[in-house]
Amino acid sequence: MATTTGVNSDLAKERNNSTFDVEELSNFIYRGPEKVKRRRYLHNLATKDPFFRKFKPWAFQTREEQYEICLQKHLYINKKCKELNLTEPVDKFFYTEAAAPHENSPIGLHTVMFIPTIEKQGTEEQKKRWLPLAESLKMIGTYAQTEMGHGTFIRGLETTATYDPRTREFILNSPTITSMKYWPGNLGKTTNHCLVMAQLYTQGKNCGIHMFMVQIRDLETHMPLAGIEVGDIGPKFGYGTNDNGFLRLSNVRIPRENMLMRYSKVLEDGTYVKPPNAKIAYGSMVLVRAAIVTDAARALAQACVISIRYSAVRRQTEVSPGGEEAQIIDYQTQQYRLFPLLATSYAMYFAGRFMYDFYLKTTAEIEGGNLDSMPQLHAISAGLKAFSSWMCSAGVETCRLCCGGHGYSHASGLPKIYIDVVPGCTYEGENNVMMLQVARFLMKMYGKLQNGEALPTFMQYMSTDLNKKSCMTEEVALNCLVMAYEHRAARMIRDAAASMEKLVQSGKSPVEAWNGSTVMLTWAAIAHCHAFVTKLFVETVVKSRMDSKVQSALTSLCKLYAVHGIVENLGGFIQDQFFDSKQVKILQKKLMQLLAEIRPNAVAFVDAFDYPDEVLQSCLGRYDGQVYQALYDYAKSSPMNEKEVLDSYYKYIKPAQNGKYQQYSKL
Ligand SMILES: CCCCCCCC/C=C\CCCCCCCCCCC/C=C/C(=O)SCCNC(=O)CCNC(=O)[C@H](O)C(C)(C)COP(=O)(O)OP(=O)(O)OC[C@H]1O[C@@H](n2cnc3c(N)ncnc32)[C@H](O)[C@@H]1OP(=O)(O)O
Ligand SMILES: Cc1cc2nc3c(=O)[nH]c(=O)nc-3n(C[C@H](O)[C@H](O)[C@H](O)COP(=O)(O)OP(=O)(O)OC[C@H]3O[C@@H](n4cnc5c(N)ncnc54)[C@H](O)[C@@H]3O)c2cc1C
User: Which of these, 102, 250, 574, 642, has the minimum number of CB atoms within 10 Å of its CB?
Assistant: First the structure.
């Protein structure tokens, strides 16, 4: 029976029954007790600061209020980060996630893309000129690449930057309606500068797309400058806090020095100097793709915290007539929907940790002049970005559904998480398009394999003998699970390559063969990412040092991740009889066993993510489990309840009850 004060008794019982120490697992997730302490310190700074608590809740704000309140919060965050000397990205990330949870910043693009692009693509002189202004917010900028007509195919962008050697200026133009910049975050009303991606023309030649710094608003009045038409694109599915914008450029002249020239250059006379690799200009997208993996993992982790705590508190339906109603977490169907997502949130966290480290290592190499790992970085970041945002967005929605009716209310906190995470499937490269980039890399690797060339370590599984059958026994060993994923990916890569080959042999051009095989190529890319994430999870639990009870519990969760992925995608695993029917039965049985094994630790697993209530902002996911009182308080706080009788009653309902409808004819 739930009490109305203190911790809900069901939740308290769950915590008593877990087999491991939650603190030990938090230490493992966040890489040590010192880091956990630091994260808590940063969360506390934000959650205990009265500044962030003075605003009405996000769900009760109008669009304009969402923008204005979020802007105030992020400007304050910016000021606090400086005062507190928070310079590390991880520190800023933790402070911000607690200060404005899932509220997309009106100066976010400035921080996440504008400044990093200057840092990575600007010359020393440009960095000296712009970075201090950007740091002090005198310049507020965004990354303006996407146009109304083109987002994916960036070589098809229509904005032009034509070099005029007489004045040593570039002239920027949006020649058509489809060439107008459309979607860039913070562009509509906040920014006074943009990094504009445009087709460079010099000496009568098109040299492809390049980045240009363009001032769009007056620094004193904030009015748009001559030749600039700019504004907000209007309400969206979410992102109400963000003024995604449109921009039209008409004969806007900027000095030659405003082209980002660290790698490509236009000399004074108009001579074009090529970069060492044309794709180096895509570096800012790679950075954000890498960051999205952790961002998506965090969204799913928080959704699991909410949904699993609520499932432990919520009781529904007497199991035997007249008996006690069961905790909904005890229904096997609820476990089947939630526990694999819990496992996925851990898998994605570890993938995010890997991605961040790999990004830092590889970009350091690139900046040192060694570009060898660029294709790998592109393939891994594109693949993990797409895989994580797909899995986590779908997972958040399932968590919401698992909360029944209350999941549909903003009181659950789940809709806010969902609308914040789901655009990650689209921005920074639409996910299907990103998977096709991965497939392109896989086909290259397959070609190397055919030619007997060496493969990078993470691709060596492709040389597996595809006639081999699974080693799976009743024990369901982790290595057999990894082997299954790698086998499936290797076969799908081979099948996609064979499909293209067959089309070429039938007389199709390579491009036609590619287009005729994109579904199979996408299957192969997804299977590759699934294998990559599974292997990473397995290696993390097997090779890392951690408390033995935590390791045992985490091993079950990891196994669940792998077994569930096989059972849910069975067709791909049995197509070539890799598993026989006996092994399939073993896996199905193991899946049910794992659900039961994880059940006593489910709450402990989500507690270990260590998200304070102020971050979750959920009546259902509260640490104390007092969900019903919280729902009641939430309902009472709705602005709709400020008056007992609304004006609309007198204006519309009362007259209608009296058969009077004249007010409508006035319209
Ligand atoms: C517990 C740990 C805590 C850690 C904390 C970490 C700290 C994190 C810090 C901050 C966290 C904040 C979280 C933020 C997350 C939310 C942010 C929200 C902001 C979102 C804002 C959104 C912005 C945007 O959307 S910007 C616009 C993005 N647009 C795109 O992505 C366009 C997609 N299209 C493309 O990329 C390209 O057009 C293409 C790749 C599809 C095709 O390009 P194209 O030039 O046409 O290519 P093609 O000629 O066909 O050639 C293909 C060859 O090029 C190679 N290639 C392509 N791209 C790259 C690349 N980037 N690098 C290297 N190589 C590349 C490709 O492999 C082909 O090579 P090949 O050899 O020819 O095969
Ligand atoms: C919330 C949000 C914030 C954004 N912020 C920014 C920003 O700050 N700066 C910026 O420049 N942009 C931004 N964008 C734009 C974003 O990067 C693009 O929307 C994205 O890259 C997808 O491009 P698109 O809209 O042209 O989609 P499209 O390419 O038109 O996609 C439509 C469909 O066509 C398919 N498709 C397209 N090309 C191919 C292909 N080659 N093969 C197979 N299928 C294909 C896609 O899979 C998709 O299903 C933002 C978008 C959103 C939603």
Answer: 642
Instruction: Tell me how long the chain is.
Output: 667
Residue 185 annotated as binding site: yes
Find the ligand nearest to 373 CA: 1
CA dihedral 563, 569, 575, 578 (to 10 degrees): -10
To the question of whether residue 245 is assigned a binding role by annotation, the answer is: no
Specify the DSSP element, H or E, that contains 142: strand 141-144
* Percent of the residues in the chain that have a pLDDT greater than 90, as a whole number: 96
* 279 C-beta neighbours (distance < 10 Å), count: 13
Question: Under the phi-then-psi rule, with left for phi > 0, alpha for psi from -120 to 50, and beta for the rest, what region is 272?
Answer: beta
pLDDT in tens, 530-567: 999 999 999 999 999 999 999 999 999 999 999 999 99
Q: Which ligand is nearest to the CA of 236?
A: 2
Beta carbon of 436 within 6 Å of any ligand 2 atom: yes
Distance 286 CA to ligand 1 centre (A): 4
In the set 169, 397, 428, 486, the catalytic residue is: 428
Using a 6 Å cutoff on CB, does residue 514 contact ligand 2? no
Write out pLDDT tens, residues 516-530. Answer: 999 999 999 999 999
429 lines ligand 2 (CB under 6 A): yes
Tell me the whole-structure pTM to 2 decimals: 0.97
pLDDT band at 667 (very low <50, low <70, confident <90, very high): low
d(CA 617, CA 639): 18
- Span 55-74, average pLDDT: 96
Q: In the block, which residue shows the tokens 């350091």?
A: 364
* pLDDT of amino acid 3: 45
- Report, as an integer, the average pLDDT of 482-501: 97
Residue 586 clears pLDDT 90, i.e. is over it: yes
Question: Is the shortest distance between the CB of 44 and ligand 2 below 6 Å?
Answer: no
Pick the ligand that lies closest to the CA of residue 385. 1
Angle value at C-alpha 427, between 102 and 162, nearest 5 degrees: 130
Could you give the ipTM of this predicted complex? 0.97
Q: How far is CA 128 from CA 134, 296, 306, 564, 620, in A?
A: 11, 34, 46, 52, 49
Compute CA distances 467 → 71, 463, 483, 578, whole Å: 59, 12, 13, 8
Which atom belonging to ligand 1 lies closest to the Cα atom of 349?
A: 1
- Please state, in angstroms and as integers, the Cα–Cα distance from residue 627 to each residue in 519, 604, 609, following that order: 45, 18, 20
Q: Which domains does the chain have, with CATH numbers?
A: 35-106 (1.10.540.10), 116-275 (2.40.110.10), 626-660 (no CATH)
Closest to 387 (Cα-Cα) out of 490, 533, 536: 533
User: So what's the pLDDT on residue 320?
Assistant: 86
Told to judge if 428 belongs to the known catalytic residues of this protein, a careful annotator would answer yes
The whole-angstrom separation of Cα 395 and Cα 342 is 9
Q: What is the pLDDT of residues 212-244, one digit of tens each?
A: 999 999 999 999 999 999 999 999 999 999 999
Rounded distance from Cα 318 to ligand 2 centre (Å): 49
CA 293, CA 536: separation in Å to the nearest integer?
14
- Cα separation, 605 vs 168, in Å, equals 61
Distance CA 307, CA 300 (A): 10
Q: Which atom of ligand 2 is nearest to the CA of 197?
A: 11
Q: What is the DSSP string of 610-633?
A: ---HHHH--SSS-TT--HHHHHHH
Mutate to test the pocket of ligand 2, among 107, 142, 146, 385 (most ligand atoms within 8 A of CB): 146
pLDDT tens-digit readout, 249-276: 999 999 999 999 999 999 999 999 999 8
